[in-house]
Amino acid sequence: MNTTVVNKVKAIKTLNSIAESGLKVFDSHYTIDNDSENPDAIVVRSFNMHAMEFGNQLKAIARAGAGVNNIPVDKCTEQGIVVFNTPGANANAVKELVLTSLMAASRNLFDGVSWVKTLEGEGAQIPKRVEAGKKQFVGKEIKGKTLGVIGLGAIGALVANDAIELDMDVIGFDPFISVDIAWKLSRKVQRAMTMEQLFAESDYITVHVPLTEDTRGMFNEETFSLMKDDVYILNFSRGELVNETDMAAVLESGKVGKYMTDFPNENVLKMKNVIPTPHLGASTVESEENCAIMAARQVKEYLETGNIKNSVNFPNTAIPYTGKKRVTVFHKNIPNMVGKITSAISNYHLNIADMVNRSRGDLAYTIIDIDNIVDDEITLNLEQNINQIEGIVTVRMI
Ligand SMILES: NC(=O)c1ccc[n+]([C@@H]2O[C@H](COP(=O)([O-])OP(=O)(O)OC[C@H]3O[C@@H](n4cnc5c(N)ncnc54)[C@H](O)[C@@H]3O)[C@@H](O)[C@H]2O)c1
Ligand SMILES: O=C(O)CC[C@@H](O)C(=O)O
């Protein structure tokens, strides 16, 4: 059971380096306390939170980024902790790195640069050695080649559209594409009806899906066998999308020509023709600021008003905050919960000014604004009464 302490300074804990401009969103009503054992909210990037226990004051976790596989979302849902992410805030940064890698790999840029550096000390011989040696690094142009994009979300759609501008043929696969993205996608992007079709037609494949139990290991011996010989694969999503043993084998045989991954580990670094980057996709000044500001604003809004925007585990729910007493309740999505909550309120002869109820799966969230001045004693009693209703997960009085 969560008990609300009204008007205390709220503690925000960060688990990774978060851009200063984001932390500045938290004004004097907040303290950034990275040693806090029981913060009101956590802001995180890639820190693995699966082994963490959460204090009873924790109300929100904000992922300054897209992927939430480092957060135990189901456990948070059971405990009424809202998990936010920042959709699209780092998409441009990732898109630029994907296209940079695509072109650099096609032109053997990484190997060429490394080789030139070995010539240091050869003095006047260097230009001659360069001209003689460059034939090792002859590349291929991307113009007219087919790029397969798996996952047409914030990143995949940007990559697909810009690859069209680079004169590539683009084929996309996303059975869950959103209407918003479908409107933004170039008409020249062809739709693959199956992933098998995309595998069969692509010279380059880039993957932009979240890591879930459905997508884990989607690149494996069986799917590699459906691809063209010498296909280049770009993985700026998550390492676990790829079966590493199978990838090592197809790189060795030459079935896959190159593998660009943002997720190096010991196995990856042993692979032939791998181009590993140090999880750099979102590492630009602009992207880090976008993500941090968006994450911080969403947390602040939730802590101060109970309104939810961009949560991955609770429904988006918002009504304008008037500053009067607000009751927010997470509860089971079963009949008559709203009736029981509103009758607990009417027992105190309080009038309801506005309310909203949204559900997602087994849980629902209700915000109720009360049209009266409510003193601290009634606030605490009402909170306790609502908490005692069967099926309540958490209650906050704001
Ligand atoms: N390298 C980095 O630094 C970096 C940065 C940002 C995001 N990422 C990774 O990239 C992923 C995608 O980010 P985004 O912002 O584009 O997310 P997004 O949610 O906007 O897009 C994901 C898309 O994948 C689609 N999808 C889901 N399952 C699918 C499947 N089985 N087959 C085809 N499509 C499927 C969804 O419908 C959605 O359109 C993130 O989940 C994260 O893991 C990495
Ligand atoms: O925080 C980062 O640098 C990486 C973020 C990225 O993996 C994401 O999923 O948004």
UniProtKB/TrEMBL annotation:
It comes from the Bacteria. Residues 326-398 form the ACT domain. One of its GO terms (molecular function) is NAD binding. Pathway: Amino-acid biosynthesis; L-serine biosynthesis; L-serine from 3-phospho-D-glycerate: step 1/3. It catalyses: (2R)-3-phosphoglycerate + NAD(+) = 3-phosphooxypyruvate + NADH + H(+); (R)-2-hydroxyglutarate + NAD(+) = 2-oxoglutarate + NADH + H(+). InterPro entries: ACT-like_dom_sf (IPR045865), ACT_dom (IPR002912), D-isomer_2_OHA_DH_cat_dom (IPR006139), D-isomer_DH_CS (IPR029753), D-isomer_DH_CS1 (IPR029752), D-isomer_DH_NAD-bd (IPR006140), NAD(P)-bd_dom_sf (IPR036291). Keywords: NAD, Oxidoreductase. Its EC number is 1.1.1.399, 1.1.1.95. Belongs to the D-isomer specific 2-hydroxyacid dehydrogenase family. Catalyzes the reversible oxidation of 3-phospho-D-glycerate to 3-phosphonooxypyruvate, the first step of the phosphorylated L-serine biosynthesis pathway. Also catalyzes the reversible oxidation of 2-hydroxyglutarate to 2-oxoglutarate. This is D-3-phosphoglycerate dehydrogenase. It comes from Cytobacillus depressus.
